[in-house]
Amino acid sequence: MLLTQLNQIGGASVSRRERAWLTAAVVGWIALNGAVLLLAPGDAPFDWPAQHDPPSGPSQVIAAQATLVELVLLAAIGYALTRGRPAPVIAERAPTLPTARRETGLVLAYGVLAQLGGLLIGRGLGWHPIGFHLAGTLVGATDPVGSAEALGWATYNVVVYALLPLLWFRRRYTAHQMCLRSADRRGDAILILAVLVLESLAQWVVLGHAFAGLAPGQLAAGVPLTFLLYFAGTVLPTVIFVQSILVPRYARLTGSTTATLVLGGLTYAALHVFEGWGRFGSPREATLTILFVLLIYTLPGAFKTWLTVRTGNAWVHAWAYHAFAPHTMHDTGLIVRIFRL
Protein backbone atom coordinates (compact mmCIF):
# COMPACT_ATOMS: atom_id res chain seq x y z
CA MET A 1 0.00 0.00 0.00
CA LEU A 2 1.36 3.39 -1.01
CA LEU A 3 0.53 5.11 2.27
CA THR A 4 2.31 2.48 4.34
CA GLN A 5 5.39 2.73 2.18
CA LEU A 6 5.35 6.52 2.12
CA ASN A 7 5.22 6.64 5.90
CA GLN A 8 8.10 4.19 6.19
CA ILE A 9 10.09 6.08 3.58
CA GLY A 10 9.28 9.36 5.30
CA GLY A 11 10.56 8.03 8.59
CA ALA A 12 7.26 8.68 10.37
CA SER A 13 6.86 7.04 13.76
CA VAL A 14 4.08 4.48 13.64
CA SER A 15 1.89 5.48 16.57
CA ARG A 16 -1.44 3.88 17.42
CA ARG A 17 -3.17 6.63 15.47
CA GLU A 18 -0.95 6.05 12.45
CA ARG A 19 -1.55 2.30 12.61
CA ALA A 20 -5.30 2.84 12.69
CA TRP A 21 -5.17 5.07 9.62
CA LEU A 22 -2.81 2.68 7.84
CA THR A 23 -5.16 -0.21 8.52
CA ALA A 24 -8.15 1.76 7.28
CA ALA A 25 -6.25 2.81 4.16
CA VAL A 26 -5.17 -0.74 3.31
CA VAL A 27 -8.65 -2.15 3.90
CA GLY A 28 -10.18 0.66 1.85
CA TRP A 29 -7.77 0.08 -1.02
CA ILE A 30 -8.50 -3.66 -1.09
CA ALA A 31 -12.24 -3.00 -0.93
CA LEU A 32 -12.03 -0.44 -3.74
CA ASN A 33 -10.19 -2.83 -6.04
CA GLY A 34 -12.57 -5.64 -5.15
CA ALA A 35 -15.63 -3.50 -5.85
CA VAL A 36 -14.28 -2.50 -9.28
CA LEU A 37 -13.65 -6.14 -10.19
CA LEU A 38 -17.09 -7.16 -8.91
CA LEU A 39 -19.05 -4.47 -10.77
CA ALA A 40 -16.96 -4.43 -13.96
CA PRO A 41 -15.59 -7.96 -14.55
CA GLY A 42 -15.64 -7.13 -18.26
CA ASP A 43 -15.79 -3.87 -20.16
CA ALA A 44 -16.82 -0.72 -18.28
CA PRO A 45 -19.40 1.66 -19.83
CA PHE A 46 -16.94 4.48 -20.47
CA ASP A 47 -15.78 6.12 -23.69
CA TRP A 48 -11.96 6.15 -23.68
CA PRO A 49 -11.06 6.34 -27.40
CA ALA A 50 -7.42 7.30 -26.75
CA GLN A 51 -6.77 4.00 -24.99
CA HIS A 52 -5.65 0.93 -26.91
CA ASP A 53 -8.30 -1.27 -25.27
CA PRO A 54 -11.76 -0.53 -23.87
CA PRO A 55 -11.72 0.20 -20.13
CA SER A 56 -12.48 -2.74 -17.88
CA GLY A 57 -12.33 -3.54 -14.20
CA PRO A 58 -9.39 -5.97 -14.43
CA SER A 59 -7.31 -3.69 -16.67
CA GLN A 60 -7.88 -0.70 -14.42
CA VAL A 61 -7.02 -2.65 -11.28
CA ILE A 62 -3.77 -3.80 -12.88
CA ALA A 63 -3.00 -0.22 -13.94
CA ALA A 64 -3.66 0.98 -10.39
CA GLN A 65 -1.18 -1.52 -8.94
CA ALA A 66 1.41 -0.42 -11.51
CA THR A 67 0.82 3.17 -10.40
CA LEU A 68 1.27 2.06 -6.79
CA VAL A 69 4.64 0.48 -7.55
CA GLU A 70 5.79 3.51 -9.53
CA LEU A 71 4.82 5.98 -6.81
CA VAL A 72 6.51 3.95 -4.08
CA LEU A 73 9.72 4.00 -6.14
CA LEU A 74 9.39 7.75 -6.74
CA ALA A 75 8.79 8.31 -3.04
CA ALA A 76 11.85 6.23 -2.14
CA ILE A 77 13.98 8.31 -4.47
CA GLY A 78 12.37 11.49 -3.15
CA TYR A 79 13.14 10.52 0.42
CA ALA A 80 16.74 9.67 -0.46
CA LEU A 81 17.14 13.14 -1.95
CA THR A 82 15.57 14.91 1.04
CA ARG A 83 16.72 12.79 3.98
CA GLY A 84 19.36 15.35 4.93
CA ARG A 85 16.89 18.20 5.38
CA PRO A 86 14.56 18.68 8.34
CA ALA A 87 11.00 17.60 7.64
CA PRO A 88 8.63 20.55 8.00
CA VAL A 89 5.72 20.27 10.40
CA ILE A 90 3.01 21.71 8.21
CA ALA A 91 0.35 21.21 10.88
CA GLU A 92 1.95 24.11 12.73
CA ARG A 93 1.25 26.35 9.74
CA ALA A 94 -2.49 25.79 10.06
CA PRO A 95 -4.63 27.77 12.52
CA THR A 96 -5.85 26.47 15.88
CA LEU A 97 -8.10 23.42 15.93
CA PRO A 98 -11.46 25.24 16.12
CA THR A 99 -10.49 27.59 13.29
CA ALA A 100 -8.99 24.78 11.21
CA ARG A 101 -12.13 22.71 11.67
CA ARG A 102 -14.40 25.57 10.66
CA GLU A 103 -12.28 26.58 7.66
CA THR A 104 -11.95 23.00 6.43
CA GLY A 105 -15.70 22.49 6.56
CA LEU A 106 -16.35 25.74 4.72
CA VAL A 107 -13.73 25.03 2.04
CA LEU A 108 -15.09 21.53 1.42
CA ALA A 109 -18.64 22.88 1.18
CA TYR A 110 -17.37 25.53 -1.23
CA GLY A 111 -15.72 22.79 -3.27
CA VAL A 112 -18.98 20.85 -3.53
CA LEU A 113 -20.79 23.97 -4.72
CA ALA A 114 -17.98 24.68 -7.20
CA GLN A 115 -18.29 21.16 -8.61
CA LEU A 116 -22.06 21.47 -8.96
CA GLY A 117 -21.64 24.92 -10.49
CA GLY A 118 -19.23 23.50 -13.05
CA LEU A 119 -21.71 20.75 -13.88
CA LEU A 120 -24.64 23.16 -14.32
CA ILE A 121 -22.69 25.81 -16.23
CA GLY A 122 -21.11 23.25 -18.53
CA ARG A 123 -24.41 21.60 -19.33
CA GLY A 124 -26.16 24.95 -19.65
CA LEU A 125 -23.67 26.04 -22.31
CA GLY A 126 -23.93 22.76 -24.18
CA TRP A 127 -20.50 21.61 -22.99
CA HIS A 128 -19.26 18.69 -20.96
CA PRO A 129 -19.34 19.19 -17.18
CA ILE A 130 -16.58 21.55 -16.02
CA GLY A 131 -14.48 19.28 -13.84
CA PHE A 132 -10.84 19.22 -12.84
CA HIS A 133 -9.93 17.80 -16.25
CA LEU A 134 -10.94 19.05 -19.67
CA ALA A 135 -13.11 16.46 -21.42
CA GLY A 136 -10.82 14.16 -23.40
CA THR A 137 -7.86 14.56 -21.04
CA LEU A 138 -5.65 11.45 -20.96
CA VAL A 139 -8.36 9.10 -22.27
CA GLY A 140 -9.73 10.97 -25.30
CA ALA A 141 -13.33 11.86 -26.11
CA THR A 142 -15.72 10.95 -28.90
CA ASP A 143 -17.90 14.01 -28.27
CA PRO A 144 -16.12 17.02 -29.76
CA VAL A 145 -14.66 19.68 -27.49
CA GLY A 146 -14.58 23.21 -28.90
CA SER A 147 -12.07 25.97 -28.25
CA ALA A 148 -14.67 27.99 -26.32
CA GLU A 149 -15.22 25.05 -23.98
CA ALA A 150 -11.48 24.62 -23.41
CA LEU A 151 -11.03 28.31 -22.59
CA GLY A 152 -14.18 28.34 -20.44
CA TRP A 153 -12.99 25.27 -18.53
CA ALA A 154 -9.60 26.82 -17.73
CA THR A 155 -11.12 30.18 -16.80
CA TYR A 156 -13.77 28.72 -14.49
CA ASN A 157 -11.33 26.50 -12.64
CA VAL A 158 -8.55 29.03 -12.17
CA VAL A 159 -11.00 31.64 -10.86
CA VAL A 160 -13.14 29.39 -8.67
CA TYR A 161 -10.52 26.99 -7.26
CA ALA A 162 -7.39 29.15 -7.28
CA LEU A 163 -7.90 32.91 -7.54
CA LEU A 164 -10.87 33.40 -5.19
CA PRO A 165 -9.60 31.03 -2.44
CA LEU A 166 -6.11 32.53 -2.70
CA LEU A 167 -7.40 36.09 -2.34
CA TRP A 168 -9.50 35.09 0.67
CA PHE A 169 -6.82 33.16 2.56
CA ARG A 170 -3.85 35.40 1.74
CA ARG A 171 -5.61 38.22 3.58
CA ARG A 172 -5.38 36.06 6.70
CA TYR A 173 -2.27 33.92 6.30
CA THR A 174 1.28 34.34 5.05
CA ALA A 175 2.79 32.58 2.04
CA HIS A 176 4.77 30.43 4.48
CA GLN A 177 1.63 29.36 6.33
CA MET A 178 0.03 28.45 3.02
CA CYS A 179 3.06 26.39 1.92
CA LEU A 180 3.63 28.70 -1.05
CA ARG A 181 7.24 29.58 -0.25
CA SER A 182 10.20 27.23 -0.45
CA ALA A 183 12.44 26.81 2.58
CA ASP A 184 15.11 25.05 0.48
CA ARG A 185 15.04 26.13 -3.15
CA ARG A 186 18.03 24.06 -4.17
CA GLY A 187 16.71 20.94 -2.47
CA ASP A 188 13.26 21.43 -3.95
CA ALA A 189 14.72 21.97 -7.42
CA ILE A 190 16.73 18.73 -7.21
CA LEU A 191 13.67 16.80 -6.06
CA ILE A 192 11.50 18.33 -8.79
CA LEU A 193 14.03 17.52 -11.49
CA ALA A 194 14.47 13.93 -10.35
CA VAL A 195 10.75 13.17 -10.12
CA LEU A 196 10.00 15.03 -13.36
CA VAL A 197 12.63 13.15 -15.36
CA LEU A 198 11.61 9.74 -14.03
CA GLU A 199 7.88 10.41 -14.40
CA SER A 200 8.41 11.78 -17.91
CA LEU A 201 10.27 8.63 -18.89
CA ALA A 202 7.49 6.49 -17.45
CA GLN A 203 4.85 8.55 -19.26
CA TRP A 204 6.81 8.35 -22.50
CA VAL A 205 6.98 4.56 -22.28
CA VAL A 206 3.26 4.26 -21.56
CA LEU A 207 1.82 7.26 -23.41
CA GLY A 208 4.54 8.28 -25.84
CA HIS A 209 2.19 7.77 -28.77
CA ALA A 210 0.45 11.04 -27.80
CA PHE A 211 2.95 13.07 -29.87
CA ALA A 212 2.71 10.74 -32.86
CA GLY A 213 1.57 12.44 -36.04
CA LEU A 214 2.06 15.99 -34.80
CA ALA A 215 4.10 18.23 -37.09
CA PRO A 216 6.89 20.42 -35.67
CA GLY A 217 4.73 23.51 -36.12
CA GLN A 218 1.85 21.88 -34.26
CA LEU A 219 4.17 20.96 -31.41
CA ALA A 220 5.66 24.46 -31.32
CA ALA A 221 2.21 26.01 -30.88
CA GLY A 222 0.48 23.16 -29.08
CA VAL A 223 2.97 22.48 -26.28
CA PRO A 224 2.94 25.99 -24.73
CA LEU A 225 -0.82 26.33 -25.22
CA THR A 226 -1.41 22.96 -23.55
CA PHE A 227 0.86 23.92 -20.67
CA LEU A 228 -0.93 27.24 -20.11
CA LEU A 229 -4.44 25.79 -20.33
CA TYR A 230 -3.75 22.90 -17.98
CA PHE A 231 -1.74 25.08 -15.62
CA ALA A 232 -4.79 27.31 -15.24
CA GLY A 233 -7.41 24.59 -15.40
CA THR A 234 -6.03 21.92 -13.08
CA VAL A 235 -2.48 22.61 -11.80
CA LEU A 236 -3.08 25.93 -10.03
CA PRO A 237 -6.41 24.75 -8.60
CA THR A 238 -4.66 21.72 -7.11
CA VAL A 239 -1.82 23.83 -5.71
CA ILE A 240 -4.11 26.34 -4.01
CA PHE A 241 -7.33 24.51 -3.17
CA VAL A 242 -5.88 21.15 -2.09
CA GLN A 243 -2.20 21.45 -1.25
CA SER A 244 -1.99 25.00 0.08
CA ILE A 245 -5.28 25.31 1.96
CA LEU A 246 -6.62 21.88 2.85
CA VAL A 247 -3.50 19.76 3.38
CA PRO A 248 -2.08 21.80 6.31
CA ARG A 249 -5.52 21.77 7.94
CA TYR A 250 -5.84 18.03 7.47
CA ALA A 251 -2.50 17.67 9.22
CA ARG A 252 -3.65 19.91 12.09
CA LEU A 253 -7.02 18.19 12.52
CA THR A 254 -5.79 14.60 12.37
CA GLY A 255 -2.30 14.82 13.83
CA SER A 256 -1.40 12.00 11.46
CA THR A 257 0.79 11.88 8.37
CA THR A 258 -1.11 8.90 7.02
CA ALA A 259 -4.46 10.60 7.54
CA THR A 260 -3.19 13.69 5.75
CA LEU A 261 -2.11 11.61 2.76
CA VAL A 262 -5.40 9.71 2.71
CA LEU A 263 -7.50 12.87 2.90
CA GLY A 264 -5.33 14.67 0.36
CA GLY A 265 -5.69 11.77 -2.05
CA LEU A 266 -9.44 11.46 -1.55
CA THR A 267 -9.96 15.21 -1.96
CA TYR A 268 -7.98 15.24 -5.19
CA ALA A 269 -10.02 12.30 -6.48
CA ALA A 270 -13.35 13.86 -5.46
CA LEU A 271 -12.57 16.94 -7.53
CA HIS A 272 -12.53 14.70 -10.63
CA VAL A 273 -15.94 13.14 -10.08
CA PHE A 274 -17.45 14.99 -13.07
CA GLU A 275 -14.90 13.80 -15.61
CA GLY A 276 -16.06 14.07 -19.22
CA TRP A 277 -16.14 10.28 -19.53
CA GLY A 278 -18.26 9.78 -16.40
CA ARG A 279 -21.70 8.20 -16.70
CA PHE A 280 -24.59 8.76 -14.30
CA GLY A 281 -27.49 7.30 -16.29
CA SER A 282 -28.06 4.40 -13.88
CA PRO A 283 -27.02 3.43 -10.33
CA ARG A 284 -24.43 1.00 -11.74
CA GLU A 285 -22.94 3.63 -14.06
CA ALA A 286 -22.80 6.23 -11.29
CA THR A 287 -21.21 3.77 -8.87
CA LEU A 288 -18.63 2.65 -11.43
CA THR A 289 -17.82 6.26 -12.30
CA ILE A 290 -17.08 7.06 -8.66
CA LEU A 291 -15.10 3.84 -8.16
CA PHE A 292 -13.00 4.41 -11.28
CA VAL A 293 -12.32 8.02 -10.25
CA LEU A 294 -11.15 6.84 -6.82
CA LEU A 295 -9.01 4.09 -8.34
CA ILE A 296 -7.38 6.41 -10.88
CA TYR A 297 -6.81 9.58 -8.84
CA THR A 298 -6.47 8.73 -5.14
CA LEU A 299 -2.90 7.43 -5.36
CA PRO A 300 -1.58 10.34 -7.46
CA GLY A 301 -3.37 12.72 -5.08
CA ALA A 302 -1.73 11.04 -2.09
CA PHE A 303 1.69 11.29 -3.73
CA LYS A 304 1.19 14.97 -4.50
CA THR A 305 0.27 15.43 -0.85
CA TRP A 306 3.37 13.54 0.25
CA LEU A 307 5.55 15.90 -1.77
CA THR A 308 3.92 18.84 0.01
CA VAL A 309 4.24 17.24 3.44
CA ARG A 310 7.85 16.26 2.78
CA THR A 311 8.98 19.69 1.55
CA GLY A 312 6.46 22.12 3.00
CA ASN A 313 6.13 23.53 -0.52
CA ALA A 314 2.83 23.16 -2.38
CA TRP A 315 4.55 24.05 -5.67
CA VAL A 316 6.82 20.99 -5.75
CA HIS A 317 4.15 18.59 -6.96
CA ALA A 318 3.05 21.04 -9.67
CA TRP A 319 6.41 21.05 -11.42
CA ALA A 320 7.47 17.50 -10.58
CA TYR A 321 4.27 15.53 -11.09
CA HIS A 322 1.51 17.48 -12.78
CA ALA A 323 2.11 20.36 -15.20
CA PHE A 324 4.57 18.72 -17.61
CA ALA A 325 4.02 15.03 -16.98
CA PRO A 326 1.43 13.87 -17.68
CA HIS A 327 -0.60 16.79 -19.03
CA THR A 328 1.71 18.65 -21.39
CA MET A 329 3.23 15.39 -22.60
CA HIS A 330 -0.02 13.58 -23.20
CA ASP A 331 -2.67 16.21 -23.90
CA THR A 332 -0.91 18.34 -26.52
CA GLY A 333 -2.56 16.30 -29.27
CA LEU A 334 -5.97 17.00 -27.77
CA ILE A 335 -5.33 20.76 -27.66
CA VAL A 336 -3.96 20.74 -31.22
CA ARG A 337 -7.19 19.14 -32.41
CA ILE A 338 -9.43 21.44 -30.36
CA PHE A 339 -7.79 24.63 -31.63
CA ARG A 340 -7.08 23.21 -35.11
CA LEU A 341 -3.43 24.16 -34.96
Automatic annotation (TrEMBL):
Keyword terms, alphabetized: Membrane, Transmembrane, Transmembrane helix
Segments passing through the bilayer: 20-40, 60-81, 107-130, 150-169, 190-215, 227-246, 253-274, 286-303
Keyword Transmembrane helix in annotation: yes
Keyword Transmembrane applies: yes
Protein name: Uncharacterized protein
Organism: Micromonospora arborensis
